[in-house]
Amino acid sequence: MASRARPGERAAADVRARPLSRSVAPRLQRTVDTLAEHQTATAAACFSLLVLVYLWPALVGGGVLTPAALLYAFAPWAAAAPPDLHQYDNLLLSDVPMSYLPWDGLARELLHAGTFPAWNPHAFAGTPLWANASVAWLSPFSLPLWILTLNYGLGVAAAAKLWLAGFGTYLLARELRLGFWAGMLAGVAFALCSFNVVWLSHGAHVSAAAMLPWLLWLTERIVRRGRPADGPLLGAVVAVTQLSGHPGTQLHVLAFTFLYAAVRLIAEREFARRDRLVRIATVGAALGAGTLAAAVVLLPAQLAASGTAGEVARRGGASGMPGSTLSADALRAILLPDWWGRPSEGVIAGPGNYNERALYAGAIAAILGMAALISPDGWRRKAPFVALGAVGLAVAFDVAPVRDAVNALPLFDHVQNQRLLLWFLLGVAILAAFGLDRLLKGKHRVQAWSVLCLSALAVVATIGDADLAGGDLGRALRRMTDRFAADTTGSLALASVLRWGLLAAALTAIWLAFQRRRRPMLVGAAIVALAAVDMVTFASGYQPIGPEEKVIPPRTPAIAYLQRYADESRIVGTEYTLASDWSTHYGLRDVRGYDAPQPSLRFFRLWSVLNTAQEGWAPFDLAGISPESTRVLGMLGAGHVVTRPGTALHEERGSLLRKVYDGNDATVYRNELVAPRALVARRVVLAADEDEEFAAVLDPAFDPRTTIVVGADDVGGDRSATELASSGTARVVDEGNAHVTLQTETDSRALVLIDDAWAPGWKVTIDGVAARAVRADFVLRAVVVPPGRHEVRWSYVVPGLRTGLLVSAAGVAVLLAWGAVAWRRRQR
Question: Which of 399, 496, 561, 810 is the most buried (most CB within 10 A)?
Fold first, then answer.
């Protein structure tokens, strides 16, 4: 690839032909010439250096890329918080320690044990695990997490994503016939754009976003060259994208790819109609085949998501979720991303939230991108980025006709479309490449100067909106070198303006030098270097990286106490005590969770009684404990309630809760109403429908230690409740990730409950003979067993896994056959 002449390399050839200076040593000149001859390799090395500089503490310094230190804000870790906690804190990244990182740890543990990761017993009284798409089981980016130590793997995986994002954007710019430095600027701008920075530790979002420029690079090759061999390659990249683990970003990335092809083919007038149809069909076939190849993950995830609380919360484009739309004020983040401060420095302010108003691709890129926007040439190549970038911006900023149209589209009506800002950010990066390319060729300097002046005027004008006070200038100057310096609203805004001013001044100096002495290579290098400094400065600090002993909360005495009873019952915390899912880290099973789109609508309905403010998209938690919630929690198997130290629940709940641990890290209560792990019903309540089941488990007379509520139709409508009640015993004799075996002994036919969540895919046998699984106690599962001694075995088979595997095999076969045919034709 490096040896083949590319469109747009003529400018580089001109640079090679002209010595840097008569005074430059011959050895240095030869080095420059060698790099110019191997531009692709040079670009790859430069992006490696960029990522290394940004992630040096994680890749070389031994630090861990994780915001888990934010858990020190809650019990049982608050008392153990390190004095310099503020350096590793970012509350807006709470999703990571409350979901993504525990999932990765559990997945790694199961894979290393040789266990297929079908089920997660640690959240929501049990929930699907393989069907949790966000784990990204088969994504290449997950490989470092599975084979390296988890702490180091996090940094390596992040580095791979950012490198691919930058280098892929460079290749796309070159394919668009732009020069070397233009491609480098585009790559720098997109690699460390705000979307990739703020979602980096989440993992799945950036795994998909990093593939967007690669998809467009191959699509552009198909559109412009019509090469069949690029079709299977595009399909392979589509498969990698679909395995990335974030359905919303996957949809946005693939939609951009197809729309890009459509707009480009419409703009290219020289193609015959048949050629256009063949090219768009090639792109469509690649999208389809790549999606089929990922069905082994996509199909189980789709089946598991249907009818869940998270799926309902995201209907209609997730318009009800925080940050789903932005006010016009947020537009200033294009040039001034830290106008309102940033959460990594303890400031959470401004429209939406920092993550969702992610608009920054660099001040340099924004200025050059605007210059390209007003220049008259190159519009056939620029049009897709302008059009789709405008759509992304319009959806995020609540432009009603565009937003409503997008949110009404199939698939788009089930994801958070505010994050179409990704389209805008890539558009800025590519337009910046067009702007720099023209500037280095001596074109459109007037437009560039005009944009720079207008941008300066706009930034100066915004100062009038800042709430300035005495001493703000001094505070702003201190904040330029110390991001944790004391601040005010005015000093935050002023520091952001000063930072932009320095960049604009440096860019102006480079342009003035270029006008005096025409050195395109030096000017291009200087502008890209300036952009790199801008982007690394912007990115640094947002994702906490620190020593393991400070960023990973320790095992406290309260946790050690709970671990002694981990096999007997579950736990629950109040007010984010021992935050949901992070308890997985200690082998504890929780009735809370943050495993979107789970839990089921039934579970959410039940939990909404315990916490009336609970949202389907948020971490499940409790503000407090009531007699009603004590009973429901006991039904779910929560034998211990963990609270902040000094919380006196026993005074309110009488004898239902008994204090069993009281330390400076937490207070733990024993729930006396906790149901046993396996229960033979001594009393059965038959309900006619879901509402009656719901009312029955909330009835004050309901005792989860002896009573089971079940739908009458589930056990045969003609049965009486007394026919299903019996004396006897049931105990767990064997348990694995996706199976549990009970030994039961009853005097008569009886309903036997296992205190785990009901979900499609659970099957049960009695002495090896298939039996009917019954949903009991509204969200749990049970089976009717005959009298006597029996072995009851529950096993979980991931719904859609086998079908998905067959479809994936077919998709891979299509791509391989397509590639083989294309290769043979090329050999001819």
Answer: 496
Q: For residue 478, what pLDDT is reported?
A: 87
**Cβ partners under 8 Å of residue 14, min gap 6:** 520
Angstrom distances, CA of residue 627 to CA of 604, 609, 692 = 19, 12, 20
φ, ψ of residue 60 in degrees (nearest 5): -120, -35
Strands 127-128 and 545-546: unpaired
How far is it, in rounded angstroms, from Cα 271 to Cα 224?
9
Contact indicator for 800, 810 with CB cutoff of 8 Å? no
Non-local (6+) Cβ contacts of 226 within 8 A are 275, 278, 279
For residue 98, the 8-state DSSP code is I
**What does the chain come to in residues?**
828
Quick check: helix, strand or coil at residue 52?
helix
Q: How far apart are CA 631 and CA 625, in angstroms?
A: 10
- Which residue's entry shows tokens 């100067």? 449
Residue matched to tokens 């001594």? 682
How confident is the model at residue 28, as a pLDDT?
Answer: 63
Give the DSSP H or E segment for 695.
helix 690-698
Secondary structure class of 648 (helix, strand, coil): coil
Instruction: Write the CB contacts of 405 (distance below 8 Å, at least 6 apart in sequence).
Output: none
- Describe the chain by its helix, strand, coil percentages, rounded to 5: 55, 10, 35
Whether the ω angle into residue 599 lies within 30 degrees of 0, i.e. cis, is yes
Find tokens 């250096």 and name the residue: 49
Cβ(592)–Cβ(604) below 8 Å: no
Task: Write the DSSP string, 421-432.
Answer: HHHHHHHHHHHH
d(CA 121, CA 98): 15
Contact 628, 557 (CB under 8 A): no
> Hey, what are 736's tokens?
């694995």
What's residue 717's pLDDT? 65
| pLDDT for residue 17 | 41
Strands (E), 624-680: 638-643, 657-662, 667-671, 678-680
Is residue 245 a contact partner of residue 135, using CB atoms and an 8 Å limit?
Answer: yes
Mean predicted lDDT score pLDDT of the chain: 90
Task: Give me 111's structure tokens.
Answer: 């894979």
Radius of gyration of the chain (CA): 30
Helix intervals (H) in 230-321 = 230-242, 247-267, 273-293, 295-305, 309-313
Contact 123, 573 (CB under 8 A): no
545-546/570-573 β-pairing: unpaired
First to last CA, the chain: 20
Spatial CA neighbour of 101 closest among 193, 200, 208: 200
pLDDT score recorded for residue 479: 85
**Are 781 and 794 a contacting pair, CB within 8 Å?**
yes
Which regions of the chain are under pLDDT 70?
1-32, 319, 323, 443-449, 461, 515-518, 650-654, 717-719, 828
pLDDT of residue 733: 96
Q: CB–CB of 587/566 below 8 Å? A: yes
Which DSSP category does 97 fall into? I
